[in-house]
């Protein structure tokens, strides 16, 4: 326990990240101060929001600086502690980032229970991604029994959870994903309609699949998927905007006419609600209910989840780049240590 391997931001990516944007580093394992604990990372979560933090464009959170350890949710074991809330041997969830060891406090980390679910699940279905789906759908989408709920990136950790919660709430569900393997998985999850956005004429196929329109659309992607969905939105439809992964690597405005006028016309004439959100804004009011309900749904088998696990911290950059290109299948996780 003398060397702390980490991955830092070497330079800001221009468009799609490449290997040279990441810097591998070795330093001393930090020593916990008063009120701090040292955590050895077991699992690291990779998520699309990290691409935004690598940019210095104005956003909802401060950007990473060059040389910073890349941010990320982690699950790890407390190996030293000067915080009475955290005991050596505890498994905790925190934001340790892309490194083997990190410092935390009892205010920033909370203990997890492997008797409820495996440790890695607290980075997915029982962690930030699960709560993102839960809070965005229920607080903004407000699905009602009998309504149609559509979701993009529907085999991802957020999208797949959105669809399954919508089914629990009595809705008809439409999942949109990329590739035949993912479409088959949507059927396994119980989606009523499963569409491959890589096949031709998504707009026409979606129109046929939802003759009565869409009441809730959970947006994870943007791009041509959004272009197909917009005409199908019903009056008073709700659109929780969670992510726009199709745009994250853009370096310039998309080609073609400005569609903002058409968008605003739809918002006005259909009384649409488009609401961007960050899951943290709902933690105070909804997180306790989320842990109780989601834990119950998972234990009862009403919600299932899939993880895409890669071993080795050194493989985080390549895996992250692949995730942004849709190469992951399920929640993207790096196994850092046993």
UniProtKB/TrEMBL annotation:
Q: Which domain of life is it from?
A: Bacteria
Task: Fetch the InterPro entries from UniProt.
Answer: ADH-like_C, ADH_N_2, ER, GroES-like_sf, MDR_fam, NAD(P)-bd_dom_sf
Entry's Gene3D superfamilies? Medium-chain alcohol dehydrogenases, catalytic domain (3.90.180.10), NAD(P)-binding Rossmann-like Domain (3.40.50.720)
Residue span, Enoyl reductase (ER) domain: 17-334
Keyword annotations of the record: Oxidoreductase
A single Gene Ontology MF term assigned here is: oxidoreductase activity, acting on the CH-CH group of donors, NAD or NADP as acceptor
Q: What is one Pfam family matched by this protein? A: ADH_zinc_N
- Name the record gives this protein: NADP-dependent oxidoreductase
């Amino acid at each position: 326990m003398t060397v702390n391997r980490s991955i830092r931001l070497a330079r800001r990516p221009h468009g799609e990240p490449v290997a040279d944007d990441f810097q591998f580093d070795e330093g001393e394992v930090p020593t916990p101060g008063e009120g701090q604990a040292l955590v050895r990372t077991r699992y690291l979560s990779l998520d699309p929001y990290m691409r935004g933090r690598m940019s210095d464009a104005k956003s909802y959170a401060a950007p990473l600086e060059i040389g910073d350890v890349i941010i990320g949710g982690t699950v790890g074991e407390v190996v030293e502690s000067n915080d009475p809330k955290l005991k050596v041997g505890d498994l905790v969830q925190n934001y340790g980032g892309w490194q083997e060891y990190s410092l935390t406090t009892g205010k920033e980390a909370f203990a997890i229970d492997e008797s409820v679910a495996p440790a890695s699940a607290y980075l997915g279905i029982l962690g930030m991604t699960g709560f993102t789906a839960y809070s965005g759908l229920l607080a903004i989408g407000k699905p009602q029994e009998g309504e149609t709920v559509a979701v993009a990136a529907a085999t991802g950790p957020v999208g797949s959870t959105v669809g399954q919660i919508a089914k629990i709430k009595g809705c008809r569900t439409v999942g949109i994903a990329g590739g035949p393997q993912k479409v088959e998985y949507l059927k396994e999850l119980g989606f009523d309609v499963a569409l491959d956005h890589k096949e031709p004429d998504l707009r026409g196929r979606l129109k046929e699949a939802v003759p009565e329109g869409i009441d809730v659309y959970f947006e994870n992607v943007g791009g041509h998927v959004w272009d197909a969905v917009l005409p199908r939105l019903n009056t008073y439809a709700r659109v929780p905007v969670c992510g726009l992964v199709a745009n994250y690597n853009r370096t310039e405005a998309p080609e073609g006419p400005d569609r903002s006028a058409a968008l605003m016309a739809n918002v006005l004439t259909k009384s649409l609600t488009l609401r961007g959100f960050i899951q943290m804004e709902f933690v105070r009011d909804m997180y306790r209910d989320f842990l109780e309900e989601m834990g119950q749904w998972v234990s009862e088998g009403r919600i299932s989840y899939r993880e895409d696990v890669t071993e080795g911290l050194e493989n985080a950059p390549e895996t992250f780049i692949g995730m942004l290109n849709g190469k992951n299948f399920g929640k993207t996780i790096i196994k850092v240590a046993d």
